[in-house]
Design a protein that fits this description.
The complex is a heterodimer of chains A (about 60) and B (about 190).
Chain A (H helix, E strand, L loop, with lengths): L3 H6 L5 E3 L6 H9 L5 H7 L15 E3 L2
Antiparallel strand pairs in A: 1-2
Helix pairs in contact in A: 2-3
Chain B lengths: L1 H19 L2 H25 L1 H19 L3 H54 L11 H26 L3 H21 L7
Classes of the chains: A alpha+beta (about 60), B mainly alpha (about 190).
Chain lengths: ~60, ~190
Amino acid sequence: MADEKTESENPYAQWHVVVKGDTLSKIAKKYYGDASLYPKIFEANRPLIKDPNLIQIGWKLRIP
Amino acid sequence: MNRMRTILALAAAGALVACASQKEPAQAALNAAEQAVAGVKAEAERYAPDQFKALAGALAGAKDLFTKGEYEKALAAAGDVTSKVKDVINAVNAKKTELTKAWEQVGGAVPKMMEVLKSRLDVLSQAKKLPAGLDAAKLGSAKGAYEAAAGVFAQAGEALKAGNLQEAVAKGTAAKAKAAEAMTALGMQLPQ
């Protein structure tokens, strides 16, 4: 889980569960229309994500 | 015949004395009822208007009986008004409890919705392209709904500060609906 505390504090937070083939760029493209905005997702999910090139299937990422 | 007239006259006089003897207690009871009604008026008119209307009507009826010289009935009616005041106080308290709960829900939810909305709008404002299902017009309307929600929620806060729970809840609910509209326009999920 990316940030259980934030999730429990804000039930309106938006989440994405990583599936096979996902990259932060693809996720950024899906939610923002612009893959170059992937650092927004990276920053919002630290320290779960240590390397933006390494995300694991099943991770629940917060999408700012 | 004369004796009968005398008895009737004495009986009538006795009744008058008995009735008049209720004048002072009736007046005192009416004064107490009037004070009790005045004491709940402000909150009752706001939180239990129908019950207050009935209460004011009952008080007017008691006063009317007093004016007509029906002191015993006026005394009973004034006592009835005083006991009805307790029912109105209970209705006011129940409504305030209900509104407080409603405010806790709305007042807690809206800032959280605004937080995630602002975050998403900030990111989208930096996007060179928009995601599938979202165009500039939709983004514009979402921004408008966000700003409207912020404005109405600020009014809700002012109403709360002024002690107007009813207006605070109404404005807060309107702000929540606007925020939900903005989230939906942006393709964001609302909790079930």
